[in-house]
């Protein structure tokens, strides 16, 4: 009787569900502050001004960036499971404390600390999902997980429609939900089999400097640049698309609707992009995705009289922009062996988070200077081209990872 070919075990339902929900919580947090800023300023809660709100938002993203960069080495040392649970608890506890802040400084500090935990959640979740699926499904693992991100953003938007004046509820919901998920993770989330196998074969921890060695440096530079450009686009568009549309002459309701269409396109793009990447190769798919994203962003600089045409272009922009960024993460989980995978994904996410801070800042500066349209879209299109160039430099799969996986996948 024939024996089965050994390989990574299929992902369990608990691993898939809990990693997806964790990423959903980050998507929820992405929108929550923006949704309540008008109310905070209007009511002058603890004296918050527009400038204070900008500082708080920036510090939140800085915390997320630091958390994403720092978690990688710890995840490769202590394990994916332990780090994920600890990170969820950290951001949940400090999220619950936000409504109790008695000053602007305390409000900002709590958001910064919560961001440290939140930033660690996504790279660890992506790593666990990838390591619990076969190599031929790793692109799909990343894109499937990231659909939770946009789902969380939609949930926050819907809740904000009903609780904008009682904004504290939004933070309490997020904090309590996070603690409940952490408790379930403690009982039901298994450690990554790939991590356990890697630890058995290692005599000492692999440091971050391993990523700077010749075998990984070329890939690292390409990944960091592509991740920076990808998250710059994601956050820049989510923050300023409605305002850019208004600057282009569209009515406010239509401009806000475009943000919804953009994110619907993002969900579709994540699902489709993951399937295509697993079949045709991650690098090839990422190249096409960044290229089409750049074209769509350039097209948005043109004033369109047809509402249907505008909706189609915005939808396609969402399809290709959001999943292009996630395909970079998929490449990381595919290229690096388990011993450094958490560190590599954490560095990609952390450096990308710098782009998430830079993107809204530059676009906001263009709008302030009166150059929002069409130069805002030209700027985004140029960023897409730079992302394309970075992906083009990525090498084929490492020999170490080829040897570790039973079923290799083309890149």
Kindly list the characteristics that best describe this protein:
411 residues, mainly alpha, Growth Hormone, Chain: A, 2 domains, 80% helix, 0% strand, disordered N terminus
Description of the structure:
- The protein is 80% helix and 0% strand.
- With 411 residues, the protein is mainly alpha-helical.
- The chain has 2 domains: 12-205, MFS general substrate transporter like domains (Growth Hormone, Chain: A, Up-down Bundle); 206-403, Up-down Bundle (Growth Hormone, Chain: A), CATH 1.20.1250.
- Helix 9 (252-280) runs antiparallel to helix 10.
Named at the architecture level, the CATH assignment of the largest domain is: Up-down Bundle
The global form is globular
Number of strands: 0
Residue-averaged pLDDT: 82
């Amino acid at each position: 009787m024939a024996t089965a070919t050994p390989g990574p075990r299929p992902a369990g339902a608990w691993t898939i569900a809990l990693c997806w929900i964790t990423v959903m919580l980050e998507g929820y947090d992405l929108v929550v502050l923006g949704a309540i800023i008008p109310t905070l300023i209007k009511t002058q809660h603890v004296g918050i001004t527009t400038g204070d709100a900008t500082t708080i938002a920036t510090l939140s993203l800085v915390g997320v960036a630091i958390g994403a960069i720092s978690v990688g080495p710890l995840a490769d040392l202590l394990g994916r499971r332990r780090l994920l649970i600890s990170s969820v608890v950290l951001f949940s506890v400090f999220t619950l404390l936000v409504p109790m802040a008695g000053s602007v400084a305390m409000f900002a500090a709590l958001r910064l600390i919560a961001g440290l935990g939140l930033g660690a959640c996504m790279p660890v979740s992506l790593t666990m999902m990838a390591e619990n699926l076969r190599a031929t499904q790793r692109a799909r693992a990343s894109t499937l997980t990231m659909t939770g991100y946009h789902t969380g953003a939609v949930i926050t938007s819907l809740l904000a429609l009903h609780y904008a004046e009682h904004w504290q509820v939004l933070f309490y919901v997020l904090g309590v939900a996070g603690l409940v998920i952490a408790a379930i993770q403690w009982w039901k989330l298994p450690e990554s089999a790939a991590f356990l196998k890697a630890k058995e074969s290692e005599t000492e921890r692999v440091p971050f400097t391993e990523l700077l060695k010749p075998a990984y440096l070329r890939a690292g530079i390409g990944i960091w640049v592509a991740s920076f450009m990808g998250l710059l686009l994601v956050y820049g568009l989510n923050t300023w698309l409605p305002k850019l549309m208004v600057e282009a002459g569209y009515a406010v309701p239509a401009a806000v609707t475009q943000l919804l269409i953009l994110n619907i396109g993002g969900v579709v793009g994540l699902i489709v992009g993951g399937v295509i990447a697993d079949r045709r190769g991650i690098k090839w798919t990422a190249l096409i995705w960044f290229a089409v994203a750049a074209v769509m962003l350039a097209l948005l600089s043109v004033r369109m009289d047809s509402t249907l045409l505008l909706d189609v272009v915005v939808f396609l922009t969402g399809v290709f922009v959001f999943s292009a960024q996630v395909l970079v993460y998929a490449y990381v989980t595919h290229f690096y062996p388990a011993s450094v995978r958490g560190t590599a994904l954490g560095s990609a996410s952390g450096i990308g988070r710098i782009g998430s801070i830079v993107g809204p800042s530059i676009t906001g500066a263009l709008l302030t200077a009166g150059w929002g349209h069409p130069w805002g879209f030209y700027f985004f299109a140029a960023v897409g081209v730079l992302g394309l160039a970075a992906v083009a430099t990525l090498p084929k799969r490492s020999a170490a990872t080829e040897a570790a996986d039973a079923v290799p996948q083309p890149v």
